[in-house]
Amino acid sequence: MKIKIPNLVLEAVVLQTLSEEELYGYVITKKIQEVIPISDSTTYPILRRLEQKGFVTTRSAIFDERTRKYYQLTKEGEAQLADAKKEWQTFVEQVNGILGE
Amino acid sequence: MNYLEKLAAALKGLPTKEKDDILEYYREYLEDGGLSDAEAVESLGTPEELATKIKTDYYTENGEQVPPYGSQHTTAYRVLILALIIITLPLTLPFFGGIFFSLFMLIFFFSILMLLATAAGVAFFIYGLFTLFHTFWSGLFFTGLGIIFIGLMFLVIPGIIFVTKKVIQGIVALSRWLVQLWERI
């Protein structure tokens, strides 16, 4: 894909994967990759930013005798996701208005 | 070194907390994906490439440029520090120079003193030996004095060598510390 995905959209994509259940880094990456070709190293910086902005929180759980960090959507994260979806809709409609469908 | 160890080495310069978070994340990532080191390179790139990517992201996000050699500060900051060092040099140089100069002078002075004492000791001893045959008691006195001086030398010279070594070690340690301090800026 030649188009560089804006951070706002990538962040929203990650938030969307967390909208139903808490997940850990590897699964978040794989879930997104099922649809969008992102590199494996894309997710960490996004998760970090989302956590800094308070859109996700984390908890460490023991799994198979080792720790695993799970990410959860916060109320602020949900609001942000809704916002980003609207922004994206508008953007798509505008671009489609010129480039057609 | 395995993938994570190499990554840790390549992340040098990032704040410790940040580095720990990153390493923890990728440790879990490799475990969850069941990735070997070779597969990790295929997935994430070499540890160095991944580290460069992470650092670029970290520093651009924090509104800084990516510094070379893993330093936490910008070039401008380093230049500023260098300027400060140079400006204060007229003050710091005589201070440290004075301390080292005094120490070396002290060592030098004691060495000369010891040399003279040794010479005097030997001279007394020989003089005493000769006098022994004319005036026995004064000959004995000078021989004894000479032996005391030479004995004193054997006691004091290791002390001087010890102090000299310590001073040189101190200077080396101080220089090393300063270099490390500079690298951390």
From TrEMBL, chain A:
InterPro entries referenced in this protein's UniProt entry, alphabetically: Metal_resp_DNA-bind_regulator, Tscrpt_reg_PadR_N, WH-like_DNA-bd_sf, WH_DNA-bd_sf
One Pfam match: PadR
UniProt domain Transcription regulator PadR N-terminal: residue ranges: 14-82
Matching PANTHER family: PADR-FAMILY TRANSCRIPTIONAL REGULATOR (PTHR33169), TRANSCRIPTIONAL REGULATOR RV3488 (PTHR33169:SF14)
Name of the protein this chain belongs to: Transcription regulator PadR N-terminal domain-containing protein
Classification of source organism: Bacteria, Bacillati, Bacillota, Bacilli, Lactobacillales
TrEMBL record, chain B:
Keyword check for Transmembrane: yes
Keyword Transmembrane on entry: yes
Regions that span the bilayer: 76-96, 103-130, 136-163
Keywords: Membrane, Transmembrane, Transmembrane helix
Pfam families xrefs: HAAS
Highest taxon above the source species: Bacteria
Name under which the protein is recorded: Uncharacterized membrane protein
Lineage start: Bacteria, Bacillati, Bacillota, Bacilli, Lactobacillales
